[in-house]
């Protein structure tokens, strides 16, 4: 999904070459990646991590949707998967910032930890304002989800719980599509950066 985005057109030959070298190493050959191949490998590795996290979001939503109405532990199971979704979403936002930091060749230690996301956005704003805007939109989407989660209250009656779970799963599906669209927009805005490689 993300790794197939058109924005990666310029990186694909370097990624393919890098993968070929890895196969040669397995056969006893030497490994000597060019800076472009190493760059492409880092970007694709980060994108595969993001794809994995997106698939986990989808899986958490499916678990919430499939909760049985007569299951006594439904509320606890819902809480677990809802928390899992929220944590993965926060991880996606962090990883998106790191992806941009690596794409712009920013120092990794500045992109991580406290203030890392703000550093990436500040660094991107001057030359790539659309990249910074897409990161800010993703972060705002996640902040809004946190706020909405705090307001969700599930009642104790079995029928109401099921209805709430179904509604929550539908809302998470909508949110999921916004996250995927946000990631696609971010990759699209990185096209000029990737074209320089």
Helix coverage percent: over 70%
Strand content: under 5%
Shape, per Cα inertia axes:
globular
Biggest sheet, in brief? none
Counted by DSSP, the helix tally is 8
Structurally, how many domains make up the residues? 1
Element pattern in H and E: HHHHHHHH
Radius of gyration based on Cα positions: 20 Å
Mean pLDDT: 90
What is the SS-derived class?
A: mainly alpha
Task: Compute the separation of the termini in Å.
Answer: 22 Å
Detail the poorly predicted runs. Answer: 153-162
Write down how many β-strands occur, each being a DSSP E stretch of 2 or more residues: 0
Search tags:
single chain, 77% helix
Describe this entry's structure for a reader.
This protein has one domain. It contains eight helices and no strands. Helix content is 77%, strand content 0%. Mean pLDDT is 90; it is low at 153-162. It has helices at residues 12-26, 35-65, 74-103, 108-111, 116-127, 129-151, 158-189, 191-195. Helix 3 (74-103) packs across helix 5 (116-127). With 197 residues, it is mainly α.
What is the secondary structure topology, with strand pairs?
Blueprint: H1 12-26, H2 35-65, H3 74-103, H4 108-111, H5 116-127, H6 129-151, H7 158-189, H8 191-195
Helix pairs in contact: 1-2, 2-3, 2-7, 3-5, 3-6, 3-7, 5-6, 6-7
How would you concisely characterize the structure shown here?
This protein has 8 helices and no strands. By secondary structure, it is mostly helical.
